[in-house]
Amino acid sequence: MVVWLFAGGGESEIDGLVPFLRKHFPHCHFERITPARIKRGPKPGKKIDAPGQTGKSFASQIKYRLNIALRSGSCDLILVLDDLDCKDADKQKEMFSEAIDSVGKAARIKRFIAFAAPELESWIIADWENTFAPDIDFRKFHEGLRHKLSQKYNVPFDNPESFSEYDQNKKSCKEKLSQVIIDAVYSESLRLEKPLKHYSKKYHTPKLVQRIVPSKVAQKCPFFRELYNCLNKFCKDI
User: Fold this and answer.
1) pLDDT in tens, 21-33
2) How does DSSP assign 137-158, residue by residue?
3) Mean pLDDT for all residues in the chain
4) How many alpha carbons lie under 13 Å from residue 197 in its C-beta half-sphere?
5) Are 75 and 28 in contact (CB under 8 A)?
6) 161 φ, ψ to 5°?
């Protein structure tokens, strides 16, 4: 079964998602369509095809890349995954589904639209004991880090997908989960003899995503559970 992955967002999605999916759903062949790998050179890539797209710009990118992909190949499932950023999930699903339907024969291909709510970091928060707790960069202060995230930043460890609320002015979450992790790591690591310089979405998030146990994350994250159940069924129906 060939799955075309259209992932919105930035570095953590680029480096973390495909290895994670291939590890836990080996009966499917995952091909990353977005973010596209733009070749470096004197001419910059098209703005529409740049990494880091989300929301409406991501929907436009899906149409652009799907047109290109269908010229030379085909798939059994179109998988869209974007950060929800506290937006209305039904409206976002409708927008992405319309983007797919607008591309000729893509309308006949099975699709699943999933969300990391509010961001991919909710997955690693949900499985703390397999991510932050044993990691060499965080294990010396992970208990204090967890306490600070819970008490100061109001991160709900039993339901991390519910973190924050939609901000009309920002058009996204009032607070970003990734940013409160960055802030909390910085302040807590100052207690160490050799403080950790920072939490990196580019380095730490992809690394920690590889360590989660999906069944544990599914217990705390309803949006993740939908994705997990879909791929479990689809990748075993061979």
Assistant:
1) 999 999 999 999 9
2) TTTTTHHHHHHHHHHTS---TT
3) 90
4) 3
5) no
6) -65, -20
